[in-house]
Amino acid sequence: MSTQIVQERMLIGGHWVHKNESIDVFDPGTGDLIATVPEATVEDVEFAIETAREGLQKSARLPVHERMRILQDAASYIESNQDVYVTTIVLESSKTIREARKEVKRCIETLRISAEEARRIEGETIPFSQMPGHENRVGYVYRFPVGIVAAITPFNDPLNLVAHKVGPAIAAGNAVIVKPATATPLSAIRLAEAFLHAGLPKEILSVVTGRGAQICDPLVEHEDVRFVSFTGGYETGKEITRKVGVKKTAMELGSNSPTIVLEDADLNEAVLSTVSGSFGVAGQNCIGVQRIFVHHGIYEAFLKQFITATKKLKVGLKTDESTDLGPLISEKEAKRVEGWIREAVKMGAKVKCGGKRTRAFLEPTVLTEVPKTATLAQYEVFGPVVIIESISSLIEGIERSNQTGYGLQAGIFTSKLEEAFEAIHQLQYGGVMINDSSDVRIDSMPFGGIKGSGIGREGVRYAIEAMTEQKVVAFKLKNAPFFYGD
């Protein structure tokens, strides 16, 4: 893959914009400079919002079949140019080439689902005659676009998580302004190219590159922005909720997801699933497995198999087909995770394997006996680290799983239906995966959490519902309609 430095431009209202001030984009695996992107200013944000006002009028008036065509054509463009999108993801992010291919395929699927769901934005009739005095009224509810959508996206899925915001926004007839992660802006730019190629009216979509500290506040606080969709960390999400004012939001703020493994579980399947769920994308996954609670009857066997499988994982170059784990998004992040491990060890935790760091690369790490007060036990690590602990019962596993401020997804392995349903009802999470780790998602399902894990749900259909408003229409007639009787 080429590492030639490219001077990228950002997209504002259909215009490709260059700036004198720029932000460097690095390959986290090699540290090489691969591109620069414009460093947007507050004035750029205001221009993007100004053009989005025009874009909203055009988007809302697009016939549904035209929205569908644009989304399908954008998906087809990406499918025809998959190598470009895969290369972009590999260069700017932590993903291996195999992980990048999966993300591109999911992006294509997300856009196609968005096209299909555009035809299903439906209303309903209201029987006004249910209330005395309203016999001469008939009415209905229909959905209309919420307005300008601000989409703030993370680095760990730099293409598909952008598509999860842009696809539904366009399907619903909105205008959308994307602020991609500073570390991984290139995939969002490539996605915008696909939409322009598909014939999306130019004012509808903008991709504004820049530093969050400079441009996020004026974006989310602006009165003309009516919906803020944010995926990222809890503290940033909390700040956004304080600043947005009276407008709709959707936020996915991460987790430190648990998986419970009971004595009757399929041990081999549980190990295979949790190893994959713990270390995919070098652990930088909001539903990745961070805590595993294993029944004491199989704890030693599970731990031994898990460590054996973990040691087989290959850490290395992202472009190597045999690589399982690439780097973290930066050396700074790798050092942070390393620091959390060291803190836990000082508090009494045992490192069973891994733990060594080389620049931005960190070996997949397994710890036991981690105190409940350790940072690793309480917060989202967003790195290749998993805690494995022994439990005496399902009840203990549920209690320990719930001892967190997060609540995105959880998993449980058991062959007993009663145990599964007990976990379903008692685990305080937005999703519970049976005989799977917490790391399960398809792009059409409602995705989101409770407590500190966020507000609302993504997943195309559910995002469309959030990105539309309901309007009630009532007709008062001189005479009661025939269907109410004579």
Automatic annotation (TrEMBL):
Q: What is this protein called?
A: Aldehyde dehydrogenase family protein
Record domain Aldehyde dehydrogenase: where: 16-473
Record-linked CDD domains: ALDH_y4uC
Q: Which family does it belong to?
A: Belongs to the aldehyde dehydrogenase family.
Q: What keywords appear on the UniProt entry?
A: Oxidoreductase
